[in-house]
Amino acid sequence: MHTPPRTRLAGTAALAALGLALAACGSDNSSAPAATDSSSTTTTDWSTAQSAEAGGGMEALVAAAKKEGTLNVIALPPSWANYAEIISTFKQKYGIKVNSENPDGASADEIHALKSTKGQSSAPDVVDVGNSYAISGAQDGLFAPYQVATWGDIPDGQKDTGGLWTSDYGGYISIGCNATKVQTCPKTIKELDNPAYKNMVALNGDPTESNSAFQGVWALALANGGSADDIQPGIDFVKKLNDEGIFNKTQVTPATVASGATPIVLDWDYLNVAEGTELAKKNQKWEVNDPADGLVSAYYAQAISRSAPHPAAARLWEEYLYSQDPDGGQNLWLKGYARPIELVAMQKAGTADKAALAKVPPVNDPNPFVPTQDQVTKATDTVTKNWSAAVAG
Amino acid sequence: VTDGHEAGGTGSTRSRRASLAWLGLTPFFTYVTLVFLVPIGFILFQAFRRTTTTGVTRDPVTQQFVKHSETSFTFANIQDSLEGIYRTSLVTSVKLSAITAILGAVFGVLLAAAVVSSSSQFLRQVVISAAAVTANFGGIPLAFLFIATLDANSGIVTIFLQDHLGISLQDDLHVELPELSGLCVVYLYFLIPLMVLVMAPALEGLKPQWAEAAENLGASRWTYWRLVAAPVLLPSFLGAVLLLFCSAFSAYATTYAINSSFPLITIRIDAVLSGNVLPGQENLGAALALLMIVVVLPLTVIYQLLQRRTSRWLA
Asked: How far is B202 from chain A (nearest CA, A)?
């Protein structure tokens, strides 16, 4: 899912695969759903329950989850979208242990883990993946359908109609800029094309690998006559910036942001704002603007593993993440500067944390950019074909 | 553990010794099978398979999708891996590896020769130890070392050259860190020490008697090097070039941490196997890995032949 700076070395993947293969040899049967235990008063099989109500209500779900006692999560970096607090609050609230695997993993790693550790007690219960991985994972039959209590507050198009996946949090592509080093920070994408920004403008990663870079190229496209059907103007714009010496190819990390190696960075606004909080401690100002000429938002998606070793804990985790309570997942994501998927409903109901909301860059986006899966596939093909030539030399 | 000094054993002890020898090999054989043969077999198999989805239906009760797909043997992955960005990456990987292997070998062998012929034992030990450390220095720390020194905006060398000499590292000297020129510098940082480590023993293997014998027969220093030392060293030098090439060819983390858009085949494999944008392309990843094997395999064979040749004189 995420592409924060990674320290993976070549060969790690092969070793991991080997480890999984060895682990498979010793897989035990302790992964049978614990909720079917007949000593309990409830005999709900939570692994097939499609809502808390269908399984006997929230109280029964909490009881069953506590009985399981453990939740396996994967690829949730503690410094990303407030996940450290989200996990610790869940632990405190329900007394359930959380095993966090491979916190810096990518969406592909999560899907791979679901497939390769299926049936083991250490397999992930839930995943948090990019939208296209949620859609392909659902079609591969990896997820269990589940509708949280606040299902109605999640906008249509941001959830699978059958409940196999649900968007959870996201943000807009923003322009982060070191205002201590750059005289005038760019507020729109058009303004990036300025000789004063020589060697400064960077994307967060490679658009064929990092989703934020990919969506960044799409934002550049929208500002330059592109559309959901046409990402090419974004690639052309990068080529222009590259020819003019403005585009900076250095891989963005918190270290390059702090050292000034990457003074202007296109990235999700929640990551840029978090960067700003860190830089403020070093007396540097990191200004964040969501460019009005290229508003691209994207949301990650939650899904429960079809073969989750802790089916009740997995479902309770989802209820918690979509809860609009002050200590529920939706407001905790907001505290991490990310936009929770139920934000519009929360603002209407007055349940959104106002102090946290004030720190998120303001956006006026009445018609959000939501490309279809076919358009996404087409755009990835275009980027895969034309990107390396655009940034060559 | 068996030792071979009791040469004339009876038939029964001989057969027992044979079974023990077989036992001793087992861990090695298991290791090779698990980490080498099985993955290669997997890559070979996956590289030629592709699944095509023909249709998707949905069960209204369980909400699960049922995917109708066909998996067949095909050359499509290989074909894709030789086109567009993947072709560029293969070419760039080979180019970067070849340039750095040759430069690293030349600079490395000169440095090694200087060190070996030095009369200072202390200097020798310091250089060899430093080489052992820097040859194994890689990944994110190495990447950030160069970002901190050569980066266009904040590198200290860049700023020093600009402020004190009025020279632009990027525009005048054409060393751009995220490009081929800059990455060559980074690779040489660990390849030259590797060359020193590999070549120092070979250079030490040159017997002083050979030089003396040549001199007695009236050869000049140059003639000695041309007709005696160079031919003896050539196989190990060429072997070292191949070693450097393979080392550069498989490098990944450092380049990724400097410029993740740089077209290297190793970075492409990462993008399809472990990325966030391209779902369901694992077979293409296998095809790319196969290309790497195809490049490295003949080099390994040549390396083995050169090793045999080397051991004739420098055992």
From this structure: 30
Q: Give the residue ranges of chain A where pLDDT is below 50.
A: 1-42
Number of CB atoms found within 10 A of residue B199's CB: 24
pTM recorded for the entire structure: 0.81
Q: B35: which DSSP letter? A: I
| pLDDT at residue B315 in the model | 61
Residue B218 to residue B224: CA distance in whole angstroms: 10
Distance CA A73, CA A98 (A): 7
The tally of CA atoms less than 13 A away on the side-chain side of residue B84 is 17
- H/E run at residue B228: none
CB within 8 Å of chain B, chain A residues 204-223:
205-211, 214
Q: What is the pLDDT of residue B67?
A: 84
For chain B, what's the residue count? 315
Taking a C-beta distance cutoff of 8 angstroms, is the pair A220, A325 a contact?
no
Cβ atoms of A300 and A131 closer than 8 Å? yes
| Residues A124 and A74: beta-carbon distance below 8 Å | yes
pLDDT given at position B68: 87
Number of Cβ pairs < 8 A linking chain A and chain B: 166
Q: Which of residues 108-137 of A touch B (CB under 8 A)?
A: 108-109, 111, 130, 132-133, 136
Test B266 with A10 for CB contact under 8 angstroms: yes
In total, chain A counts a number of residues equal to: 393
pLDDT along chain B (315 residues), means of 10: 41 57 86 93 94 88 89 93 91 97 96 90 92 89 92 91 90 89 95 95 89 92 91 92 95 91 92 84 94 94 88 73
Contact B63 A389 (CB under 8 A): no
- Does the CA dihedral A59-A77-A285-A173 come out positive or negative? negative
Q: Which two tokens stand for residue A366?
A: 């009445």
State pLDDT tens for residues A5-62. Answer: 333 333 333 344 444 444 444 344 444 444 444 444 447 899 999 999 999 999 999 9
As a whole number of angstroms, the distance between CA B249 and CA B270 comes to 14
SS3 content of chain B, % helix, strand, coil (to 5): 70, 5, 25
Identify any residues that bridge with B57 across adjacent strands, giving them in sequence order.
B66
- pLDDT tens figures, A189-221: 999 999 999 999 999 999 998 899 999 999 999
Find residue A264's DSSP bridge partners.
Answer: A177, A201
Question: Phi, psi (5° rounding) for residue A49?
Answer: -70, 125
Nearest to B64 among A111, A141, A251 (CB): A141
- Closest CA in chain A for residue B59: A162
Look at B65 and A200 and tell me if their CB atoms are within 8 Å: no
Nearest to B273 by CA among A18, A108, A135: A108
CB atoms within 10 A of CB A375: 16
Contacts 24+ apart (CB under 8 A), B126-131: B127/B196, B128/B196, B128/B197, B128/B200, B130/B193, B131/B193, B131/B194, B131/B196, B131/B197
Record: contact A9-B151, CB cut-off 8 A? no
Q: Are the Cβ atoms of A141 and B251 closer than 8 angstroms?
A: no
Residues of B in contact with A388 (CB under 8 A): 84-85, 88-89, 261, 263
Beta bridge partners of B58: B65
Per-residue model confidence (pLDDT) at position B184: 96
